[in-house]
Amino acid sequence: MASQGPLKLEEKLVCSICLEMFGTAVTMPCGHNFCMKCINNHWDKEEQETPPGEKDYTCPDCRKRFEKRLELRKNVALCSVVELVRSGEVQAFSAERKTPANGRRCSRHGRPLELYCQEDKMCICCVCTVKECRDHHRVLFEEERKRKEVGLGYLSPVICSQSEATQLQSHQFFALSFPLIFFSTQDSSERLKLGILQKFAHLMKELEECQRGAVDKIEQEQATALGQVEENWSQLQDHLAMLIQHQQKAQELLTCVDDMKFLEEFLLHPSPGSLGVLPAVEFNVASAVDSTAKILNEVSRLLLEDLPNSLNSKAADAETKGKFFPWGPSLPLPSWTPNHRNLTFDPDTANRYLQLSNQNQKAKHSHSPDGLCQDHAGRFELWQVLCSQSYSQGHHYWEVRISSHSVILGVTYKKIQRKKRAGRSFSIGLDGLSWGLQIREDCYLAWHEGQSHKIRAPLYKCLGVSLDYGTGILSFYGIGDKMRLLHSFHCVFTEPLYPVFWLCEGRAVTLCQQN
């Protein structure tokens, strides 16, 4: 139709490389037009991809080849037409084309809304026809309105019929079904609520019993160990008293001048002998409640993550959709204020390939070992390093920046494995002494007791670690525009915890500091 003339003109003024209206238009010897910047970028790319001595230059449209790079000049006439179209000075070829009386403009391009796109079901401007709706079916507002008015005319009797049927159904429901459903729902909800309350009461009672049992077991183990300590102490004191008495008798005999009396008294004063090996005092608080601790870890995860998530349908839906929440999709907003800790690396534990700088606040994996690094019992053979600080109570939070993926951060007891093992480049999270988060290129792995849990999330260069020692919750967060929970461990901690890191070759970790 005639009203489509300006639209066809604007389509002809689009660069086939950038799909935008020409900037500085240039014309090739083959007759095709491009933006000067676009065609030069195209030829730059061809120069990089073609081996030296075999360079040729092509037209992106017809693929015609040129032996030398052409010196293209601005097409003044074509640029003038583009400027006219941009400024809106090109008028319609038909009296049918006109600016809408309401004067509404496109929210994306600021041009008057002139046509209706049937695929996108929205009003569009002339620029939309060149870009987003280029291949869509477009009609005038009047045509689309007539088509929809016909549809409304057919629907009107149907709507009236459905309205009458709905009113009749509403009267029947209120008179017959509503009382039955109301009282049935009320009765069912009361019974369900009572059952839930009884179940929680039973669980709390059992938890209290388990708590008393675990505490009693620890106290029994403690009493046994302290009793052995007292017994060993008593034996040592008795043996020491006997040795002192024997020494005094020996001194008296040595001062005796009567040889016969000396020999007679010597027979009555035998050697006291040695004390022997004292029984070892064994008290391993972790093994005393090891099975209980594992159950508590799982119960903690169920109560703090799965149970609130099951009761909050919105949180569950948001988690499945992968939305971001300030403190993660499964846990509610914590009541604590982050108590930031300024950490420093412990140089006596750093592997020889890890160079510490910035007052021990930055660690980088270099290509060569530090020749001045002295031997130390706590130094890692693995590419790992501990922090100097440790925590055994309270709530703590710290942040780190990483240069790239292939880094592990976590916490550990001080007796973590420091020697190399076959087939393993790190020891964080491979036993029950440490917990770690491995940052990989495509995902995260949460490690503990040699088991890993995969987490799908984008790569964060800044990460936060929250350690609530008392409640046994260790959480890792990704920090971007918002804070996202990546993973939480639920544990029973029994020893001081040290922040620990593993760095692959060329990687760097910086401990964030706050005043």
UniProtKB/TrEMBL annotation:
Gene3D superfamilies: 2.60.120.920, Classic Zinc Finger, Zinc/RING finger domain, C3HC4 (zinc finger). The keyword rRNA processing does not apply. One of its GO terms (biological process) is innate immune response. Residues 101-137 form the B box-type domain. Pfam families: PRY, SPRY, TRIM_CC, zf-C3HC4_4. InterPro entries: B30.2/SPRY, B30.2/SPRY_sf, Butyrophylin_SPRY, ConA-like_dom_sf, E3_ubiq-ligase_TRIM/RNF, PRY, SPRY_dom, TRIM8/14/16/25/29/45/65_CC. GO terms for molecular function: zinc ion binding. Residues 15-63 form the RING-type domain. One of its GO terms (cellular component) is cytoplasm. Keywords: Immunity, Innate immunity, Metal-binding, Zinc, Zinc-finger. The keyword Zinc applies. Residues 323-515 form the B30.2/SPRY domain. PANTHER family: B-BOX DOMAIN CONTAINING, E3 UBIQUITIN-PROTEIN LIGASE TRIM65. This is Tripartite motif containing 65.
